[in-house]
Amino acid sequence: MSDVDAKRVRDQARYFGVTDARHVVEYGLKAKAFTAEKLAKPFTVYTAFASAMGRSTMPRYYAFVVTADGKDLASVLVEQGLARGIGAHRETPTGVSSTEMADRLHDLELQAMLHRAGIWAQSDPESLGRLRAQERAEEQELKDFRDQLRKPPSATQPMNLNTATSQQLQSISGVGPVLAAKIVAGRPYKSVAELRKVDGVGPKTYERIQSYFTVATPAK
Description:
Helices cover 46% and strands 8% of the residues. The chain is mainly α and 220 residues long.
């Protein structure tokens, strides 16, 4: 097991209040088998080209899976105690708001916990609070590190709009991979004001990011 996998197992053990990490692997395999059974018949996948939450630096996108009997796979897994009801949320293909969907998953998870369904049967109530506190502390530490690494460049030393790399552009809060790609595609720029012509750079976004740029004439 790689270090990344070991950390993921540890995180899930903390979340479910499981003191023996082997149970996490056991129920992970059960979740895999359960999913394979549910998807043995034709199913529908709805995707959205929007960044989803995750520790990995690899891009992750939203996908809603609807089983053959018309049920949301994520909801079924949470209800069975085979998945967590956390993460980034997005409006569903049927029009349910991201907030409402998050609340529904939370309610299903609470029901699974009370019925000790799935991995919740291995949860130790006495350890749950302590383990989750450890997880929150580590998440905050990682967030602080990420914020430091992604700290935008000083407005007193703006980057060249025509030569900044995609990674440099994404160091600015609010500029993700998609917007960075659009900014690069819009080159060359004669002035920073031309950023307003880029799809996705509205008035508020422009006011927030324009001070981080300058347009320098390339040396001949």
